[in-house]
Amino acid sequence: MNTSKLERAVLVGVKLKQEQDFDFESSLEELQGLTEAAGGIVIATMVQAKDRPNSSTYIGKGKVEELIQLVAELEPDLVIFDSELSPVQLRNLEEAVETRIIDRTILILDIFGQRAHTREGILQVELANLEYRLPRLTGRGVEMSRLGGGIGTRGAGEQKLELDRRRIRNRIQDIKQQMQRVEKTRMLHRKQRQRAGLKTISLVGYTNAGKSSLFNTLCKNAHRSGNKQVAADERLFQTLDTTTRKISLPSGRDVLITDTVGFIQNLPHHLVAAFRSTLEETVDADLLLHVVDASGTDYLEKMQVVEKVLQELGAADDKILTVLNKADLIDDNHGSQKVGFFVSAKTGQGLEELLGKIEIKLNQ
């Protein structure tokens, strides 16, 4: 990897009193993965334990001074906070540290801005981005105008950061109207599928659980073309736009299967709101395959994150089939903690049995 083109980032995390050590550490580790997915490289990490965030700078005054010295010494391109910063906190930190400051929300929005390709995906990302940035434009004209590019400046496009509040509000309304039209088209397609008697299956799960790999393997085994259908690699949020294909079950019955965006800890509410229609359609499928990376030590915690989001979206428990992926990487002891159906998208282990189980569930 050519690291000379990667943006150098310092990460900042605050462990709150009520937060578990494991949750804090896994969130920081995930922030590093998100930074790398956005095109950055982490050069340092600063942490602080506090009862509650500082209302004006999020971290304490002493830590602000420490951060100023660290930035002067390392000269990073940006500093990334592992929480959503208020407009006041963001402005005060930028003035004190004199470098680009972004938070977890804008980092994820940036990744989504890079990965969205369909019209609906692009609109959803722009909507979330503008609604996040709108209250943060006040008094920041100078800072916004000197933002060149890079992580945290892409999603809605640099030119949109210089729009006044009225024009941004108008753009938000325009996007919402466009999305309503897209949603109507999607509802028509759904009715056509229902009339054709086609059952639908959605792959859901934590980002990087192997959903796209499993999707590809199922399509290769059961799709008429036998070809790989979507890109799959180790980057977080490789899949953003949903992809749907028709596959055949062992009986010869055709069903539609959809690959969807992954979930993470602390998924920004701006994104949940913007992607709600897509997420709701996902959980409206006849069957949800909850794909879990069973080789990870924290797989149970990640399962809970996904289950919580599915519950909030109103997904029925009896429509969810848990699929423990990466079975080829699991030893016997780990496998004894069986909480779902074991498969390996890489080796094909358990796929025939999975297709049979899918057929049984759809017939219930």
Task: Give your account of this protein's structure.
It is a single chain. The protein is α/β, with parallel strands linked by helices and 364 residues long. It folds into two domains: 3-162, Rossmann fold (3-Layer(aba) Sandwich); 198-363, P-loop containing nucleotide triphosphate hydrolases (Rossmann fold), CATH 3.40.50. Helix content is 45%, strand content 17%. The protein contains 13 helices and ten strands. It has helices spanning 21-38, 61-74, 87-97, 104-115, 119-133, 141-145, 165-195, 211-222, 269-274, 276-283, 299-312, 332-335, 351-363; strands spanning 7-16, 40-50, 78-81, 100-103, 199-205, 243-248, 254-259, 287-293, 320-325, 341-342. The strands form two sheets. Strands 6-7-5-8-9-10 form a six-stranded mixed beta sheet, with helices on both faces. A four-stranded parallel beta sheet has the order 2-1-3-4, sandwiched between helices. Helix 11 links the parallel strand 8 and strand 9 (320-325). Helix 1 (21-38) packs parallel to helix 4 (104-115) and helix 5 packs antiparallel against helix 7. The protein is globular, with a radius of gyration of 22 Å. The model is unreliable at 139-147 and 226-236 (pLDDT under 50).
